[in-house]
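Deliverable D4.2, example record:
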Amino acid sequence: MDTFKFPGGKDVTVVRKQDVIECVNTNIVDKEVALAIIEQCEIDAANFLRQGRWTGIPFIGNIRASKVSILQNSKEQKELIDYVRDNSTMEHYVLFRRNLAVDNEKRVKATRHFNYVLAMAVARNRQGFKKLCKERGDKYARIHYFLTYTITAVDNESIPIEYV
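Output generated by the structure prediction step:
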């Protein structure tokens, strides 16, 4: 185990698998059970990361896969990348991969912005949102509240509906 001192007076202890095994050797009589626990923790963490979920690792913290990498590893994009790799030149393939990464980053950023604005809009009128979800559906209510929260009036003119 190594202990590092960070600014602000915080100590961070780095624990490796070997350190855990040494601790098990001194404290636990049945070592096979302890190794099985460690292996199961590793398997669970790998499965959570593969699913794009948060995972916690003791004495290290929480980690997750980025949304961009999850999009790149989706089945549709993998098939598209394989198709372009097989049917185009290397220069076109490199440009395609770069543009795809930029598009994925824009999509993730837009989704995060949409969810942020929607959360603020729903927090202001939760009962109305629930009522609209029951009447029209969840997708309609989400779009409605997002648009009503982000649209601003340019001028105060109004047009009667019967003349349009």
